[in-house]
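Morning run. Coffee first, then this:
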Amino acid sequence: MMELLERVESSYIPAFKTMLMDVEAALTEAQDVRLHLMPLKCRLEDIERVEFSEVKPFLLPLLHVVCLIWVTSKHYNMPVRIVVLLQEICNLLIEQALVYLSPEDLLKGDMEESLGKVRMVLGILNTFKEAFEERREKLHTYYEPGQEVREWDFNSTMVFVRLDTFLKRLEMVEDLLATALDLMKLEKIEFSGIKGKTLGQQVLDMYEEFQEAYKLFSERTYDCLDLTNMAEDSALWAVESPQDQRVPPRERANISAMGQHRNVLRLHEDFATLRWLKDFEQDAFGFQQKVEDIDRRLGTVFIQAFDDASDLEHAFKLLDMFGSLLERPVIAADAADKYSVLISMFSRALDHARLIYSRHIQTELKLGSPPVHKNMPPVAGALCWARELRARIQVPFDQFRRIPHLYQEKLYADWSQTVSEKSQYNLTQPLIRRDPETKLVTVNFDPQLVLVLREVSYLSGSRLGAIPPPAAEIYSSKESYRQLAANLELMVNRYNKVLKTVLEVEYPLIQEQLRLNLGMGKGELSDVPMVLMLLAESRGCSCTVDCWGVWDHISMVMDDVHDLEQRIQKAKNNVEEIQTIVGSWASPIFVRRDCRTESLLSLEDCQDRLEQRYSLVRESGQRIHLLVKENQSLLLADPASDIWKAYVDYVDEIVLDGFFTAIECSLKYLLENTDPKAGLAPLFEVQLDLVIPDLIFQPSLDPGTKDGFYDMVEGLLNDIYRISSLVPRLAEHSGFLHYQVRGCGAPSCWWQ
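And here it is:
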């Protein structure tokens, strides 16, 4: 056809080429889909072939094939198609379950058999959901090394929306059957005692009311498991044909893209069946209300019968007669207070047995031989009496030992049901948490996880039942959690130490390092859930993609935080050393001779002292510059950045304060020792010589005279101020070479 069109140079050639390419692409896609879906056909036929109670072994291989389809198929590895495929598998399981259960007779046949079937179906369907989640977590194992992993990132509710609805309906039917099975025992309950007949009649009336309420289900013609009209806004439609106009267009497109293996559900021709569904729910609700009323009345009857029990034996018979009815919440709440009364009755029975024994011993001492039954020899009779007394205690004790299970098993069952959910929730929490106000971090090892570890430790040796797998799995890695918590606690302490001790001028220099070290963004340590630690431990890996490199990542973060903490601490130590250095300058340069208060200022060794001080300041300045340069390296700072210049200004201010203190100390010494009010000995000496005809002071007291007294004092002051010019300025950006700036016209000094 293409050649013919080209020969006649038809204008339809471009359109025909496009159509031809589309057909070829569709053919390739169809071949690929058929190739990969064919293995699934065998698995589905296996499920259809066996009875539903034998389906469980086929579920995991079925999902295994689905995973292979996702990984290997080029055209079927799209979420929309795999979701529809899984939905259809769920529909198939629902259909097989319906065939197995025979919903029309489920509430009409034998209750115990029906309840067993419902629980069997619930177990299989929940196993399928668990197998799905397991395959979902291990989907990466289907890929070759180096191959890009594409996870099932769609929400599981899209797959199980109809199955979950079916499970809820099954649970409703299970509760209804279990309740009916419990209340069937009312027919066999009989009471003794004064009130026995009255109480028995009350229970018989309750039984008849129950029979009347339950009889309603057997008279109805609806299907109690019918889900085709579960709700008007149901998101799932399965029909005889994808072209059914009653199906929304979007759903028809999904069904057509899927290519159904078989029709699992059929849309009812009569949409009025929705009325029957509502009738069932209304009937179930009305039955539940009736049962709650019966439970309340039964609780009252139990209390009256218990109070009427004459002794421990009758009380235990009453408990045995009620049996599982005592586990019903309303009745259990009423009966809970009676267990303490039962203990008191047993205690009185023990006291009575002890009294019998004491009297028997006293009689034996009086008669010289133990009293025995008639026609029995002494030894055999004594042993028989001992056995009877022991039985008097042992029989009620054995019955009493059966009582705690009503509380223990319930407590253990409640814990088993909640521990998995709580553990998994806490394991998915971040490893660390940050306080939004203080910015400090804490290790997020939830106390509930610690409680789970302690509970499992104590319950492992008990006989109450198997430890739930999630709790057992957590407990098996308790040593890993202990090490993890200890290492994280050490890391957090170091990190918080940095935050608590960092100065305002230092924080901008390390702000980015703090963010990179601890992980402020997606995928960093603050986002790593604790459950991954368990995965890493169970897989025995540390830096592979399989466990997301959790262990290596944590080790790297811990090393980085430790390195940051050490660098910050070293930088602080350097600043403290600078403060110590400038503090060593704070002593007078010029002092009295031999440091004696009555001596004059030692002018002979002034030059030596001055050179020593200058040498100390120069060496100190070199050391200070080296320390600042080292801090630049420790803080990974850019010397041209404004935040580093601000930090240098901070250290520069410390040096400036050191010079101010040093100069102030020397000047203060001169002022205090020349203050006439202080009453101290003179600091300077001036001689008055008689040179006829004049009187001359040595040195001269005239201002402006060279080598005069004023010149000498001014020289001393200049020598003191000059120490601030011996150290190059740290803050080079200030424009000054050192810390001394001379003013105009006078030997003074200002600090910038």
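The chain is about 65% helix and 5% strand. Good start to the day.
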